[in-house]
Amino acid sequence: MTERKTKLTIRGLTKRYGAATALDHVDLDLTDGEFLTMLGPSGSGKTTLLWSVAGLNHPDGGKIWIDGRDATSVPASGRDIGMVFQNYALFPHLSVSENISFPLEMRKVSPRDRSLAITRALEMVKLEHVGDRFCDQLSGGQQQRIALARAFVANPSIILMDEPLGALDKKLRDHLQLEIKRLHERLGMTVLYVTHDQEEAMVMSDRICLMNQGRIEQIGTPDELYFQPKSLFAADFLGEANLIPSRITGEEAGCLIVELLGMGTVRTRSTPPRPNGPNVVHFTRPESIAIQADAENKANRLYGHVSEVVVSGAITKLFVHVGDALMKISLLTSVSQRVREGERITIGWDDDVGRVLSRSQKEAA
Amino acid sequence: MARVDFFPNATARRRFWPKWSRLYWQTVPVTLLLVAFFVVPVVMLLGISFLDGRGLPSIEHYRRLVEVPLYGKVLLTTLNVAFWTTLLSVVGAYPVAYLLAISRGSTRNWLIILVLLPFWTSFLVRTFAWIVLLGRKGAVNQMLMAIGITDAPLQMIYNFTGVMIGMTHALMPLATLTLLAVMEGIDPNLTKAASTMGAKGGTRFWRIYFPLTMPGVASAALLVFITSLGFFITPALLGGPQDTMIVQLIIFQIREVLNWQFAGAIGVLLVITFMVIFFFYDRVFGLSVMGGGARAPKPAPRSSIRRCCAHVGKTITRALAYVTDALIGICSTPRMTRKSGAAGSRAGLYLVCTLILGFLALPTLFVLPVSFTSEAFLTWPPTLFSLQWYRLVFDSPVWLHAAARSFAVALVTATVAMLIALPCTFALSRNNFAGKSALFGLVVAPMIVPNIFIAVGLFFLFSRLGIAGTTFGVILGHTVIVIPYVIVTVLAILKGYDRNLDHAAATMGASGVETFRRVTFPLIRSGVTASFMFAFIISFDELTIALFVTGGRITTLPKLMYEDALLSVSPRLAAVASLLLVLMSILILISELTRRKGGTRLGK
Ligand SMILES: Nc1ncnc2c1ncn2[C@@H]1O[C@H](COP(=O)(O)OP(=O)(O)OP(=O)(O)O)[C@@H](O)[C@H]1O
Ligand SMILES: [Mg+2]
Q1: Element (H or E) spanning A244, and its range?
Q2: Which residues does chain B have within 8 Å of residue A75's beta carbon, measured at their own beta carbons?
Q3: Entry pTM
Q4: What residues does the ABC transporter domain cover (chain A) (predicted)?
Q5: Homologous superfamily of domain range A6-232
Q6: Which of B98, B152, B362, B602 has the most neighbouring CB atoms within 10 Å?
Q7: What's the CATH number for A233-358?
Q8: Which residues lie across from A244 on neighbouring strands?
């Protein structure tokens, strides 16, 4: 596959609201056709970043390039984007097809091509029959799909979506996730997506950008973010994690020797960024820990007592007391490998799944 | 116990009747009062126009209306004045309402007060201020001559210009508040969404924002238009003989000629004018638009007029969008950044709004300096400083009695109106019952029907009942016109009240009365207080009802001022106006601040 060219470049983007800093020197690159999802706690600056890319706010510093051209002072109307607003922002005084027609009219598409494109867009979201209705005569999910159709119809080169599925029920959300994904694959535009929902981010994105307090905490593929978090914040924000206060006691053959306080000593392959100072937090995902027979051939082994077993369908969760600490372990539920509460248990993991993270969040940045 | 679910009909009936009877007493006082002192007198007034001098049915008055050209001419003048007032008021109000809608926090609060102060300041005081400003020896003429722009004073009042200035000044706040209600409901993301689709500034305004504000423009225009049709204070004080409006004819017929039947006939003419206007309005915009809300009228399939208007409107806004974009394109140089462009349009908006708000707020202040003049008549600049005119007012038993009576009337009116309107408002806001919309219509009708009808009708009725010319009569009349305001403002508060709070209290074991006393009332108290104050202000300021119902025997403060102003415009009047202005401003500030405090508590 050939190297894709860069679609969007952001350097040093800063946006302040009074004393509060919503964006703090953000750098970001998007390749053409990429699907990047912004994830982060409420107020971390996701919407602000999206609006800066759209040209809807005035950054206090930094620059934005689109297709290699400086777009920092280009107004929103000149950026060739499509945007789905969190609250849909459908024009209430226009019918559904007039709504979808609007971006086409702005791009001076001829009336004939326009009606063709509208029909196709409505077909795409499977709402052919609602063209003449007004938006308040549609259900929330239908409005959402119209907003999607309106963002996609003019084939913009960048699509921005701000929690577009936020208000929908699980089933509709799953359906529309697939629909968006399919549209993206078929039309190949660059997508910048904002969501609160980790699962959604994992399912849909090429890369995830984790935001925290106006800064990018970590950016990478869903897999990287999940299994190789670079900071305590990233480890804690995504999914569940065993975060054990630890001390680095030595180094041996490319491995750090880490003392999990009150639990025992383990070895972990040193992966950058390496925290400075010996006091760290040791991170493992509950999924990367094996038990009993499976644990025997792992590099790190510890022993403990099962304190609680929770079977939730396909996944079984174990809570295991090791020394003073409690480890969470997720296993696929199996009939053969039954564990009972109170049982003595061996747990183990390889030396490349554990990671050491800086204790305070500042140091990691 | 019997299982009632086997008898669905029986339960339905059982539930229906108690509900009916409970609502019965809550709404009954208001209904009775309005039927007796609003519907009956107005119908009577219009009815007697079909009788002749001997009390027999005849259409002689209508023949006279048609045959004498004067009346047609006055109707045309009235429509002309109303049209221009509407145009100027709405055009002026639009940018101010927009600025209010987009500003936040304390800026917004102060801007609102700047609009509300003139809204609630007495028409009389404001009209009087214009006389001070625009008269031959008024402030404006003195200034123009001092600068040397003119040698002789310009004629700015006692003609059409004067009427226009006075009426626009009087009604622009109403238009602003109506527009604001709609603009606040518009999602600011919509224009942003349009810009992400490639729409430039002009297109965003004309094709997205403006159509969305259209319901507000339409209802503001209708409100201003029908209110101007019923005006008489401003044309009487600021206009010349050729600017006589139709209500002045009614007043003339009753006060000078004592021809009630012909006055009634002129009233019918005005009613017909109203109905024609409502008819066309409904055809074009739909009367449902009156309710506000940022939803544009939908093309009703049955109304071809509306569809046609929508089409024309669309074409016009498109053309305007194109022209505006082109103009912006020419004016802005390529070097101009996005930021400076936005800052430029902001500055333009601020400039325009400052001018308009200045026009609204400043003129009234001119009554203050002239009230301290030491000369015997109004001059500009006034020769300061003397309290002689205030002394004159406070030494005069006539003025003091009038003030005392106005105060008492306002206090009693506001109290009575609150007492009977509150239960009715609760019933209206919380329950659905048979005849609810009819009751609501009855309740807001006195707001729409010009006060002159109520005033004349009540005088007619009261003369027969023998209570014309009594303070009691004035109180009754004022209660009728104050009730709609009380109900509408309290309804707005109750709409923002989360009924789950009551349910929550009930789950904690509070009885209905306890819930009201401990939860509901504390939460709506400030709103109710503000509403009481507005009722007080309306009654204290009211002229039309007082002018007729007092029947020359007793007088209220506004009536005394009006009659004084018709005779001569003296510094004494300026002193009274100043006192009134200061007093009212304090009252308005207090009630606005209490209302706001309540608003935040209700989480709005
Ligand atoms: N118009 C504004 N005025 C003042 N502060 C603002 C404004 N918009 C955003 N902020 C502040 O900027 C910060 C980032 O806001 P932003 O809306 O980008 O967060 P977000 O990540 O989108 O949050 P959420 O997930 O809740 O939507 C927040 O602290 C917010 O309070
Ligand atoms: Mg957001």
Answers
A1: strand A242-252
A2: 195, 200, 338, 341
A3: 0.81
A4: 8-238
A5: P-loop containing nucleotide triphosphate hydrolases (3.40.50.300)
A6: B98
A7: 2.40.50.100
A8: A282
